[in-house]
């Protein structure tokens, strides 16, 4: 969907795919054809009307010709039906297909963006982009743009035909059109600003709603129902006020333009009567013009009422374009085999917002292949951030993380991630079956392999209690699972993936002591012979690590084995002592 310099302007303006742009052109042609075909029955009606009028005024009517006109009318109706069917297929089918293609392309593009992008963007904003903005474009593609262009073409044809009959009356019919258009165009800047404010207010309101719904449990627990609903009420109030302002502005503008346009009827009657009384036009011509005026003003009025929406589309498509053109994560190198080599952090610095406070300030250490490195330190010292950088979810602001001497920044993100199994604190689950949620660890794994991994992670015990066992759907983000059950699913995924690098961030923090012992056993099997980075607050679980790195405020404070660090009597020894005192255990 990303545009190039050769992309036609309209395609770029509407953020269309190549196929969508071709479809839109075909839809416009089909719609124009329908509008022109619709003129045939109308022209025949005028001709029949003329013939009947001749009979009424005493002239000899040509009945044979009249029957011919009726027959042509019947054929015309069939042609109109066929054109309308083709028109429907082209416009609606094209719009719906393009909507689907755009959403899929954007979702796929989002998947390839660096994680830092999601740190700066709200989920509700992205949802609005993918659903609201694309839907608005769909409705304009299906029910506005083709009809608008077709109406302009057919109006121009009618204008030329009328000019051929009687140019002065034709001028009267259309003299008000430029003024009406001018009113709509003059108001567009004001309306565009209002539309933009309305979009911002909608985003703010949906962010407030999402916050409120996600936090409902805590709001109730803290008895904050009234207080927390205030910002949501304010955001919804702003949205309501802006919606009314937009409606009012559009309505006033369209009503004024339509009234000016309709004045053309009065002008046509006035000038027509003058011409008739002066003998410069006959009754038939005047009646024909009045008939036609009523026919052409309908589509023009609908164009005028649709124009404000069309003019507001530019803001929405600009957001779609910006999203589609967001640069994907850099690096394309193949990471095959690098997971089996040593992983080295070289003076890594990192801040989440790119230029704010540094979370890591020059971290350096090496993880040898097949060894366990434990990362410990006070809360907020940057342990999880290191794990995320090794997984390449983010890239260091400076310094480098190298596998086998190759900088991860130059590698294709997905290629590197094939080397890495992660079990993090926050487990993401999908609204799918237990089986498929575990199979995410390795797409294409057989049912037997999935079940073996699940059993090794001790998932069986809670899955057996579920109504449909392994086929039970987990609900949105695994809503029906406890924290410990979610972690066991995550461990099962990692076991199934069986990658050479394993990142464990508080992998057993939500488990009770009995389950923790069982899962530790599964984790030992997962980690055997792998390069492991383990983060755990309970220091006894990392005492056996080959190397322990102690982080403090984004810096490596100490490094060594458990015995060395205890002997050194530094931060690690102090943390161990505090835990011993609070938990009453000893090593
Ligand atoms: N997505 C984020 N955006 C901005 N800042 C973040 C983000 N994630 C973490 N931080 C900040 O980075 C710092 C380090 O966080 P990190 O999660 O790495 O610490 P940690 O040592 O793993 O903490 P804990 O032991 O409590 O899990 C913290 O000050 C935190 O507020």
TrEMBL record:
Coiled-coil residue windows: none
Location in the cell: Cell membrane
SUPFAM superfamilies in alphabetical order: ABC transporter transmembrane region, P-loop containing nucleoside triphosphate hydrolases
ABC transporter domain mapped to chain residues: 343-578
Top-level taxonomic group: Bacteria
Transmembrane stretches, start-end: 27-53, 65-84, 169-187, 248-271, 283-304
Pfam family, one: ABC_tran
Coarse class of the protein's main subcellular location: membrane
UniProt topology in membrane: Multi-pass membrane protein
Keywords: ATP-binding, Membrane, Nucleotide-binding, Transmembrane, Transmembrane helix
Start and end residues of each ABC transmembrane type-1 domain: 27-312
GO MF entries: ATP binding
Protein name as it appears in the record: ABC transporter ATP-binding protein
Origin species: Enorma phocaeensis
């Amino acid at each position: 969907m990303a545009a190039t310099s050769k992309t036609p302007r309209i395609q770029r303006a509407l953020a269309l795919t190549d196929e969508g742009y071709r479809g839109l052109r075909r839809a416009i042609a089909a719609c124009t054809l329908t509008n022109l075909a619709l003129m045939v029955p109308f022209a025949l009606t005028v001709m029949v009307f003329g013939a009947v009028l001749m009979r009424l005024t005493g002239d000899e009517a040509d009945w044979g010709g009249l029957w011919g006109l009726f027959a042509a009318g019947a054929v015309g109706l069939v042609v109109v039906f066929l054109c309308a069917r083709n028109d429907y297929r082209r416009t609606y089918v094209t719009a719906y297909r393009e909507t689907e293609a755009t959403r899929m392309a954007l979702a796929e593009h989002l998947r390839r963006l660096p994680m830092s992008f999601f740190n700066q963007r709200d989920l509700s904003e992205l949802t609005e982009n993918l659903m609201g903005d694309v839907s608005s474009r769909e409705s304009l593609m299906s029910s506005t743009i083709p009809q608008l262009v077709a109406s302009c073409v057919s109006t121009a044809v009618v204008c030329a035909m009328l000019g051929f009959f009687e140019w002065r009356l034709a001028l009267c019919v259309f003299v008000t059109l430029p003024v009406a258009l001018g009113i709509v165009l003059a108001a567009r800047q004001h309306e565009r600003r209002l539309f933009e404010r309305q979009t911002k207010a909608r985003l703010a309101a949906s962010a407030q709603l999402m916050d409120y719904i996600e936090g409902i449990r805590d709001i109730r627990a803290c008895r904050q129902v009234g207080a927390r609903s205030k910002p949501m009420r304010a955001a919804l109030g702003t949205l309501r006020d802006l919606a009314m302002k937009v409606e009012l502005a559009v309505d006033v503008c369209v009503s004024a333009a339509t009234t000016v346009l309709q004045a053309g009827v009065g002008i046509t009657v006035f000038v027509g009567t003058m011409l008739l009384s002066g003998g410069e036009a006959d009754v038939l011509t005047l009646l024909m013009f009045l008939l036609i005026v009523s026919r052409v003003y309908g589509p023009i009025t609908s164009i005028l009422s649709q124009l404000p929406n069309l003019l507001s589309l530019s803001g929405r498509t600009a957001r779609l374009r910006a999203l589609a053109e967001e640069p994907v994560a850099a690096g394309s190198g193949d990471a095959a085999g690098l997971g089996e080599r040593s992983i080295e952090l070289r003076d890594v610095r990192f801040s989440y917002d790119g230029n704010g406070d540094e979370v890591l300030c020059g971290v350096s250490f090496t993880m040898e292949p097949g060894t366990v490195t434990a990362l410990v330190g006070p809360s907020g010292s940057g342990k999880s951030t290191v794990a995320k950088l090794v997984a390449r979810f983010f890239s260091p602001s400076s310094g480098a993380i190298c596998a086998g001497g190759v900088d991860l920044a130059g590698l294709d993100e997905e290629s590197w991630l094939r080397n890495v199994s992660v079990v993090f604190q926050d487990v993401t689950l999908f609204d799918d079956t237990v089986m498929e949620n575990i199979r995410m660890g390795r797409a294409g794994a057989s049912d037997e392999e999935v079940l073996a991994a699940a059993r090794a992670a001790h998932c069986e015990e809670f899955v057996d209690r579920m109504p449909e066992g392994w086929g039970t759907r987990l609900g949105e983000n695994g809503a029906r699972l406890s924290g410990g059950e979610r972690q066991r699913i995550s461990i099962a995924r990692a076991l199934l993936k069986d990658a050479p690098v394993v990142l464990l961030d508080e992998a057993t923090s939500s488990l009770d002591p009995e389950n923790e012992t069982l899962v530790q056993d599964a984790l030992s099997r997962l980690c055997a012979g792998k390069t492991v980075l383990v983060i755990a607050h309970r220091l006894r679980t990392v005492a056996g690590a080959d190397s322990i790195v102690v982080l403090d405020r984004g810096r490596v404070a100490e490094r060594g084995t458990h015995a060395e660090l205890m002997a050194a009597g530094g931060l690690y020894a102090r943390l161990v002592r505090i835990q011993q005192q609070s938990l009453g255990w000893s090593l």
